[in-house]
Give the backbone structure.
Amino acid sequence: MAMTTTRPASQTARWTKKDLLGLRELSAEEIRLILETAESFREISLRPIKKVPALRGKTVVNLFFEPSTRTRTSFELAAKRLSADIVNIAAQSSSLSKGETALDTVRNLEALKVDILVIRHAAAGAPHLIARRTHTPVINAGDGAHEHPTQALLDLFTIQEKKGRIAGLRVAIVGDIAHSRVARSNIWGLTKLGASVTVCGPPTLIPPQVEQLGVQVAHRLEEVLAEADVLMLLRIQHERQERHLIPSLREYRLRYGIDRERLAHAKPGVLIMHPGPVNRGVELDSAVAEGPYSVILDQVTNGLAIRMAVLYLVSGAPKADEEPA
Amino acid sequence: MVSDIGHRAFREKAKVLDAEAIRRAMVRIAHEILERRKGGQELALVGIRTRGAILAQRLAREMETIDRRPVQVGVLDITLYRDDLSRVAPHPIVRATDIAFDVTDLDVVLVDDVLFTGRTIRAALNALNDLGRPRTIQLAVLVDRGHRELPIRADYAGKNIPTSLAEHVEVRLGELDEKEEVVLEEPVAAGDGA
């Protein structure tokens, strides 16, 4: 059995942040610490008893102001595998629909002595606002078109796992960049870890001045296809068509959809990634989504390890003594 | 795991074991483990990260030399099973548990460098239990320094060292550290040795 005695880069890094709000605020060291911690947690889900006592007695609340099945389930399983108790609150079925503000809800949860809040909200910055007003650690599970840090972390983890590195890779993010929190978090994370990122899509779906984030822009898929080590495809929302940002889903598919024929022009060993759920036959054909280059289900598996790592690190951050503003 | 000494100054009081003494201790423990094995029961060594894992590798090599039969070796990280986890901030870094075999029905020998309060071993027993149901679990340590806080003892000990609670036992192994030795250290009193 091989045993590693080399000390990883994160040996000296320590997690000291109360919250995980986005990758923009994290250093490369902190990102690597999360990825390495997740690596250790992955094995737990392969055991016959998929549970460790690390967060025994802690309470995690999934506070979702926007519907979600995948992310919520992933956080729920992550918390359960760490032995935490978890409560799910969905906006549609709570007093939030009776006009209670998000901050009131959070104050009530705080009064119930919960330990971690996992928050998804349609408004960019909502988790940040809440985090500033509570002592309870907040994990952003997606805020508007702003950030979705755990998705980007699981993407980084999957790239690292499959390619053995992130630095020096060419990653193309294809689709609706303008409305995508997944794209934004990935741009922060990938560039911090040394990947070269190109965003690709029709001009209506590329935010102006996106180059300032350190990425290149391409409007034709052919410009990135042959060079990319990783193709990260985003879900095209049907509303974009109604708002005339794209002529039609069919037109989008013709120009940016990945099918077998297009894949033949890609780099051998390219990784096909998608945050899910896939619009089959629009951004990605079924044959490619289920093909040998697709790591879409690995992303789902790795998401669990990433969320376990984040819950573990955030719950262990030193408590601040000062009153929040 | 209670030897959090990062912020305090220690100085060497005595060298307890040198490289040759460590080697002899490992050879002796390897013989003892094999002697105590009754019949053809299957043995496995599980080292507790970090230095216990190194010692488990060494013990396995010694046992294979003596016995000419391969010995399975695994690595256990007990961080998630610590009883003081909710009081430690920031949380310690978690390393992977790497036990590539099913521990159920095996005779498992846990290996660690220093036996002190016994709390690490308590955590290791719980962790092992979540991985399966070994037939027996024994404990081998390089150094037993006393001061148990739980009803736990070593089945094999390289050396028993009387220590005071304030002292610290530093184990250095060639694979990880520059030297190969076990040293007893005492705290430097305030205003002393500055």
Remarks:
- Chain A touches chain B at residues 1, 3, 5, 10-11, 14-16, 33, 36-37, 39-43, 47-49, 51-54, 57-58, 82, 309, 312-313, 315-319 (CB under 8 Å).
